[in-house]
Amino acid sequence: MKIFTTPHEIKAYRASLNGSVGFVPTMGALHRGHMSLVAAAKETCDHVIASIFVNPLQFGAHEDLSRYPRPFEQDMALLQEAGVDALFAPTPDTLYPQGFATHIHITNGMDTVLCGAHRAGHFAGVCTVVALLFSLTHPTHAFFGEKDFQQLTILRQLNRDLHLVEHIIGIPTMREADGLALSSRNRYLTPEQRAIAPALYATLCHLRDHLSVDNSKELLAWGKNELLARGFTSVDYMEMRDSTHLTPATSPHNARLFAAAALGTTRLIDNIAL
Ligand code: AMP
Fold this sequence. Notes:
Blueprint lengths: L1 E3 L2 H9 L5 E6 L5 H13 L2 E6 L19 H10 L4 E3 L3 H4 L19 H4 L3 H16 L3 E5 L3 H14 L4 E5 L19 H6 L2 H12 L5 H15 L3 E9 L12 E9 L2 E8 L1
Adenosine monophosphate (AMP) binds next to α2 and β5.
């Protein structure tokens, strides 16, 4: 596996490739969820590029940027074993040199609901880094997880507008045996919190199985209380929204359930189709 750390190197490498190029952007601390994106890219494309970059632009002032896990050697071994052709792992200074002044955000409000309402500027940080990474790696296919469904939807919008990549491919959420969605942040959980964490998915599944046009308001309120009763510290949101536009939904048709809740200082998110 080739490893590149500067924009110049990755651009030169990309220019040398013929055929389809799959791109899997990550922040590292890789788990089976990330690796399912890599596996899909390997299956679909002639060449696969992955990136590891903990993007400062998408972290708020009081978020976990400095303590975000960075097990780089382990990550490299996993990508190598999975047959990734090239890894792009820049430092923040290389990707955002002094004088960097471009920020990209979408304007239809998709980025100010759900997680966007609780993490100001987060999705602008995501859009900026993804547009930058796309312009360096120029993929034909880019792979993102449905675990971050709002992010996937916003990036589809960005890509529709800017025509950056031919195919954006969404990959279903990989879960632990007890239903907890795999996440790099799960390693922050204490054993007690880890035992409570599966209640997030379990509650979403219960809601999915009981929701109808008539009872959604009551059931979503019940769901929030259920998470608190099971031991979550707080619930940022528990909402039903349209799968395509992320607008509020009153019926399960073409809708998804979205939730974010905290266990101590660790914030977990999840979502499921209805
Ligand atoms: P991250 O490193 O958290 O930025 O995630 C990199 C990519 O992996 C994003 O497209 C995520 O949506 C995706 N991803 C993270 N967790 C999972 C999971 N449990 N299942 C599938 N994809 C995931």
